[in-house]
């Protein structure tokens, strides 16, 4: 895929996020929009997956540890062909497969249930260890929030990943700088994130998480890194793509009203 | 004849080694307690399938979850306080909610931990674990039952909590004739005057209590409930209908454990007078296990007293 195609695909993913959250009248648009480019790159370029066979044994795995941004994962999976894009409108509705947080039991393509912050990286470490035990070629990706890494369990898991030299594991920290109560450094600062992961034995890259050239080079480097897990700290903008949501903590967990929905779709339609 | 005694944690360790020989997909996780939980034997036999997670139980639960999604059958091992207590939410959300095929081997449950005292004596784990939707909860009474339970847990698809003890307890089941089935209690003594429902090390205590009661002319039905969830309702109701008095006995808080489970069954399906023998609403303390079992009222004398005080 060309950069232009990736941009357009990510924009479609963003529209799906807005459609879903608007239909649900609840959900988390801010952090979903910030991770849309990276999820698009992972599912359309980087990961060895087969939407026709979502539980293929040797597939690459992804754990969305920041599970509240499920709309981004669902929209990506839908656009990749795991299920129909129209399902997005059932998000958070009674009886829908699209639960408020990722549910591996019912959603094709979801490799791990998540949502309670801090837990996903441990599961990803387990998947990576299983891969090593079996001599399998698959890789495991795990997306964490920058606020989420305030959870101690993340560092238990990071310690284990470094200790076992899990070079089949790649952690992405979505560094949009905001959490529910405000800016990270005003709540409890996790900075410097890069140094912390380095200290835990990771190969660390720092990128602009909306620049596909930088995204590509970081994932290429992760693939080539041996005997160390990788961490990509992606500097992103919460609410990216929807003008009035950008860098606003208030859009962490709030759905747009009718007028806001129209404005959001207008913004995204202007991109492509 | 001297009765053989063995701690069910030993049985756990031994059973893992036996199962490990047959099943390549079985992996064991521990959190820096392999010597105490008895998984050290597995570590020695199958080092490539043993994962020491260090002192990080929450992470261990998540790693076990991840391993199971890749086809492994992980047994995560720690003390009950940490497996069910510390890692409760991880067990609930990362293992229970996705209904993953993870087995939780929790040793050092209950007050019989002994000298380490209240911080390590988990009398709340059954209550915590049986609350988790679709979680199977098993409390073996002796070596024979514990080994059978570990095998059954391996063969079962889905999360299972297995509760083991630190203290050596008498072997009360006959290895040759013993049959274990998840969810099926054993009527191990038939009397008809009173129903005693016991689990874990209290089954042996209840057996002793039955002897004493018998000498006083009271013959008890004794039911060994090794699976607290799903509980064998029929075996309890059948006996309660006959005896009209049920006494439960467990090395666990009277709140939320076997006594509560039996109360739920009986009050809804067969209202019967019920008396719970267990740890009262209190923490334990340091001391030799046998002294604590007596002091905290879960020994055979306490069971006898509960029957005598309530039997007409």
Detailed description of the structure:
Chain A is 42% helix and 12% strand. Chain A has 272 residues and is α/β, with parallel strands linked by helices. A five-stranded parallel beta sheet of chain A has the order 1-2-3-7-6, with helices on both faces. A two-stranded antiparallel ribbon of chain A has the order 4-5. In chain A, helix 9 links the parallel strand 6 (203-208) and strand 7. With 312 residues, chain B is of the alpha/beta class. Chain B is 41% helix and 21% strand. Chain B has 13 helices and 14 strands. In chain B, the strands form three sheets. A seven-stranded mixed beta sheet of chain B has the order 3-2-4-5-7-6-12, sandwiched between helices. The two termini of chain B are 35 Å apart.
* Tally of separate helices of chain B: 13
Radius of gyration of chain A: 17 Å
Question: Approximately how much helix is present in the residues of chain A?
Answer: 40-55%
Task: Quote the distance from N terminus to C terminus of chain A.
Answer: 16 Å
What does the largest sheet of chain A look like? 5 strands, parallel
Output mean pLDDT of chain B.
Answer: 98
The overall average pLDDT of chain A, rounded, is: 97
Low-pLDDT runs of chain A: none
């Amino acid at each position: 895929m060309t950069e232009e195609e990736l941009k357009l695909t990510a924009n479609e993913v963003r529209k799906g996020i807005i459609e879903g959250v608007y239909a649900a009248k609840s959900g988390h648009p801010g952090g979903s929009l910030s991770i849309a480019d990276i999820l698009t790159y992972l599912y359309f370029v980087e990961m060895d997956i087969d939407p026709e066979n979502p539980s293929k044994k040797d597939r690459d795995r992804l754990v969305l540890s920041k599970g509240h941004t499920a709309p981004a994962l669902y929209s990506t999976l839908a656009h990749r062909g795991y299920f129909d894009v129209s399902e997005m409108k059932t998000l958070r509705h009674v009886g829908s497969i699209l639960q408020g947080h990722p549910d591996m039991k019912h959603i094709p393509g979801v490799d791990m249930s998540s949502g309670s912050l801090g837990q996903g990286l441990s599961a990803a470490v387990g998947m990576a260890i299983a891969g090593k035990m079996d001599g399998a070629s698959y890789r495991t990706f795990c997306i964490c929030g920058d606020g989420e890494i305030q959870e101690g369990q993340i560092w238990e898991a990071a310690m284990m990943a470094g200790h076992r030299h899990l070079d089949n594991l790649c952690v992405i920290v979505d560094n949009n700088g905001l959490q529910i109560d405000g800016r990270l450094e005003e709540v409890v600062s996790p900075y410097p994130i890069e140094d912390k992961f380095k200290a835990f034995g990771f190969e660390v890259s720092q990128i602009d998480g909306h620049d596909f050239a930088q995204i590509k080079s970081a994932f290429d480097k992760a693939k080539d890194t041996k005997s160390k897990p990788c961490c990509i700290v992606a500097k992103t903008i919460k609410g990216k793509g929807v003008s009035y949501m950008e860098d606003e903590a208030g859009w962490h967990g709030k759905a747009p009203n009718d007028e806001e929905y129209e404005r959001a779709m207008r913004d995204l339609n202007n991109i492509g | 004849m001297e009765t053989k005694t063995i701690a069910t944690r030993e049985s756990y360790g031994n059973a893992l080694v036996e199962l490990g020989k047959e099943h390549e997909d079985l992996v064991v996780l521990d959190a820096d307690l392999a010597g105490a939980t008895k998984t050290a034997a597995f570590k020695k036999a199958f080092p490539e399938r043993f994962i020491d997670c260090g002192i990080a139980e929450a992470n261990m639960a998540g790693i076990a979850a991840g391993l199971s999604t890749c086809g492994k059958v992980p047994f995560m091992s720690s003390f009950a306080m940490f497996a069910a207590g510390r890692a409760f939410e991880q067990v609930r959300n990362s293992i229970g909610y996705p209904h993953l095929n993870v087995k939780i081997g929790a040793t050092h449950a209950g007050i019989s931990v002994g000298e380490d005292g209240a911080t390590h004596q988990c009398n709340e784990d059954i209550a915590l674990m049986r609350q988790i939707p679709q979680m199977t909860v098993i409390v073996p009474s002796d070596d024979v039952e514990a080994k059978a339970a570990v095998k059954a847990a391996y063969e079962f698809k889905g999360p299972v909590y297995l509760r083991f003890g630190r203290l050596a307890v008498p072997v009360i089941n006959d290895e040759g004739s013993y049959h274990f089935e998840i969810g099926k209690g054993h009527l191990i003594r038939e009397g008809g005057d009173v129903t005693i429902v016991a689990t874990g090390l209290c089954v042996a205590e209840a057996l002793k209590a039955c002897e004493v009661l018998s000498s006083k002319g009271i013959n008890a039905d004794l039911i060994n409930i090794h699976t607290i969830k799903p509980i064998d309702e029929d075996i309890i109701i059948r006996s309660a209908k006959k005896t009209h008095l049920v006494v439960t006995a467990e090395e666990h808080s009277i709140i939320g454990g076997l006594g509560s489970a039996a109360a739920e069954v009986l009050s809804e399906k067969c209202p019967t007078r019920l008396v719970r023998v267990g740890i009262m609403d209190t923490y334990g303390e340091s001391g030799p296990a046998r002294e604590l079992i007596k002091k905290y009222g879960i020994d055979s004398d306490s069971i006898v007293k509960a029957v005598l005080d309530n039997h007409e």
